[in-house]
């Protein structure tokens, strides 16, 4: 059967996404590895399960399910995102479901997957989740889900069909629960933003997925680029309508701010729904892993049991920061004739910090064309970068990263870091 042109386009865009993400995010330096788990329970979707357990985990670890995009895989999502590094830092466990279907996309359309205990890919992922809760003492009250594109759609499916399993979710460039429902895995009407409903209608789709459920509903964080060419930006507004209705809160935001240039964040109710609109951003949006982890609350606490093996040696090292200060280390992750991508790792000193500012002297003529996880100001030798709302407060020895893409030759600047 010939697949829709839009689905082929989605494959191309997201194949590029994993390459870009892998370039932008260095693999965590650690002894722990990604392992496949078989026989994890009911698996009607015939998915594969990959599990990342840091060498040090909290006594009662949180659990994050991280769901990949079309044509991706669990191992690719592990390598191309920051979730495993953040798991090392905060001591939670990560499950990476992996599609085996030929199209590489999760089933977010069938009646089975959209129904509580109905089967399909959603039940397979819930089986993985319960396996980790039972075998690794993961905390059911700190169990969350996130995903990108097809994974974002599955995030909404899991939040709707299994509100008893997941406490919150973060969906990057997805569609509302039930928007893709139908006989085919691809729904052009939804993808193109032609499927709109009233808040009540959207909310009823979620409530009917688990009739009789009367417990609390998971909190929801939504991310979408205004220039999304694969899954229309219209779906962002429809998802807000859906989840505010499910939570019984007003569609009028209780707060609006801009945590980073080009972002508009709206919050609804007492924080049950949070939505971030990213201006001039296509479907291949930068995944804000740290912000999602902060929304879940997985950035509190940390690992408590001792390491099971010695950390690896070799490779670049970060100089130890002084008490109460911070250090910043620059590296080029990708370069070409006309430009480059770079990342800067900021590490707090022995007293911890409440904010940071990095002096980033760039050559004259360098032009930053994209950035993430930092607030940029100035230009050339006067370029400075400050923390954003979710990555300024760092405990002693804890690190965070920001990055950017720029035109011009890749530099080797000497950085300064000031604790705020």
From TrEMBL:
Domain CBM2: 319-420
Protein name listed in UniProt: CBM2 domain-containing protein
Comp. bias intervals (Pro residues): 304-323
Residues covered by region (Disordered): 298-325
Gene3D superfamilies hit by this protein: 2.60.40.290, alpha/beta hydrolase
Signal peptide: 1-31
Organism: Asanoa iriomotensis
PANTHER family to which the protein is assigned, alphabetical: FERULOYL ESTERASE, UNNAMED PRODUCT-RELATED
Sorted UniProt keywords: Hydrolase, Signal
The organism's place on the tree of life at top rank: Bacteria
Pfam family, any one: Esterase_PHB
């Amino acid at each position: 059967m010939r697949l829709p042109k839009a689905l082929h386009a989605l494959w191309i865009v997201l194949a590029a996404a994993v390459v870009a993400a892998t370039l932008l995010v260095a693999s965590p330096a650690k002894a722990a590895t990604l392992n496949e788990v078989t026989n994890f329970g009911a698996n009607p979707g015939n998915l594969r399960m990959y599990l990342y357990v840091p060498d040090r985990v909290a006594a009662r670890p949180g659990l994050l399910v991280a769901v990949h995009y079309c044509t991706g895989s669990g191992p690719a999502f592990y390598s191309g995102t920051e979730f495993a590094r953040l798991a090392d830092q905060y001591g939670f466990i990560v499950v990476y479901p992996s599609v085996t279907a030929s199209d590489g996309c999760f089933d977010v359309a069938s009646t089975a997957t959209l129904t509580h205990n109905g089967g399909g890919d959603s039940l397979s992922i819930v089986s993985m989740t319960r396996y980790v809760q039972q075998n690794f003492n993961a905390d059911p009250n700190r169990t969350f889900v996130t995903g990108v594109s097809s994974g974002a759609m599955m995030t909404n499916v899991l939040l709707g069909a299994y509100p008893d399993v997941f406490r919150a979710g973060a969906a990057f460039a997805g569609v509302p629960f039930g928007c893709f429902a139908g006989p085919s895995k691809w729904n052009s009407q939804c993808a193109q933003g032609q499927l709109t409903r009233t808040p009540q209608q959207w909310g009823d789709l979620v409530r009917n997925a688990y009739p009789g459920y009367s417990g609390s509903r998971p909190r929801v964080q939504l991310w979408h680029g205004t220039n999304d060419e694969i899954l229309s930006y219209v779906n962002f507004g429809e998802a807000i309508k859906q989840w505010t209705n499910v939570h019984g809160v007003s569609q009028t935001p209780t707060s609006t701010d801009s945590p980073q240039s080009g972002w508009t964040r709206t919050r609804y109710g007492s924080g049950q729904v949070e939505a971030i609109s990213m201006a001039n951003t296509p479907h291949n949006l930068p995944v804000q892993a740290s912000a999602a982890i902060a929304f879940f609350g997985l950035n509190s606490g940390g690992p408590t049991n001792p390491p099971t093996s010695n950390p690896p040696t070799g490779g670049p090292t970060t100089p130890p920061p002084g008490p109460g200060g911070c250090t910043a280390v620059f590296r080029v992750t990708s370069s070409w004739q006309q430009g480059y991508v770079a990342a800067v790792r900021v590490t707090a000193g022995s007293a911890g910090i409440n904010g940071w500012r990095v002096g980033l002297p760039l050559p004259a003529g360098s032009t930053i064309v994209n950035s993430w996880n930092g607030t940029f100001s100035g230009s050339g030798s006067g370029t400075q970068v400050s923390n954003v709302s979710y990555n300024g407060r760092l405990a002693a020895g804890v690190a965070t990263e920001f990055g950017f893409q720029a035109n011009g030759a890749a530099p080797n600047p000497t950085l300064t870091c000031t604790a705020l």
